[in-house]
Give the backbone structure.
Amino acid sequence: MKAPVRVAVTGAAGQIAYSLIFRVAHGDMLGPDQPVILQLLEIPPAMGALNGVVMELKDCAYPLVAGIVASDDPNVAFKDVDYAFLVGARPRGPGMERSDLLEANAKIFSVQGKALNDHASKDVKVLIVGNPANTNALITLKNAPNLNPKNITSMMRLDHNRAMSQIAEKAGSHTTKVEKVVVWGNHSATQYPDISYATVDGKAVKSVVDNDWYVDTFIPTVQQRGAAIIKARGASSAASAACSAVDHMRDWALGSNGKWVSMGVFAAGNPYGIDENIMYSFPITCENGQWKIVEGLEISEFSRDMMAKTEAELVGEREAIASLL
Ligand code: NAX
């Protein structure tokens, strides 16, 4: 058995965490020989519920769980962590404008960025899930100057997995046969799920599906999938979000084996001319614990336009919280 690693999860009494923590404890993220110490963060009113989650974790008697810390203090929850899932966020309340939402979350993520900066392992891998995920990640990054900006990412994997599943279903194939899907931009309805390079069963997806389906059905279905799930389930995506968070961190830590994934990353130095001061989702490969943007892709006029729309939204989000950066 290896020495345990420390994994923080915020929003630990919430619905995504209720799936995520148990998947991590089971070894789905780092494998069956990697013990974990779980460091769970909540806000004071949710500490009772978090205690219930801790009781259930203990009752699972997981072989890989080497310790559990539950706290309402980010300085405690992030102490020496190697991996951090920032899931907890302020949801939109009645009468709240988008700018109020951005600002309320900016406050949360600036505190958590500082706490990570001061207390986490210098190599910590951070994944922001709480919405607006990309801009929350930007705030976290700006408040953690001693961490490598490459170690802070935001979750686009759910959008990526949704796109793969739509393609597999349409082609009568399986997600394992779908490669080189990209979701560019923001985790929002402006995201651009792109099939320009994608293959299914080794054939170009563009030769398997018609362009009308791509533009009129596929893109809006992936963009609106979160809303469709809320409508059907009466609650937002939780198990699928947890699954994607595990996929993201696993591939980042253990490698994607040449497979393309989509990750929200700090755009500094990106090869596609995207604003360098936002968190933007690109096609990524991971190796040796590092991610890398897939370079040299030809960008069509349609793609350029779609990429610019989602970029503009992220620039607008950054401007709405500029005073807090
Ligand atoms: P829940 O409302 O079930 O849970 C959120 C939990 O976070 C609550 O228990 C709350 O007490 C806690 N919390 C709030 N502020 C906190 C803080 N400052 N520190 C620690 N904990 C805090 O939401 P859930 O369904 O779990 O979703 C969590 C977040 O993920 C939401 O912001 C949601 O919008 C976002 N999502 C992001 C996705 C992505 O792909 N990036 C997809 C799924 C999901 O919609």
Q: What stands out?
A: The chain has two domains: 5-154, 156-321. Residues 10-11, 13-17, 41-43, 46, 87-91, 108, 129-131, 133, 155, 158, 187, 226, 236-238, 241 surround NAX (CB under 6 Å). The CA atoms of residues 156 and 187 lie 6 Å apart. The radius of gyration is 19 Å.
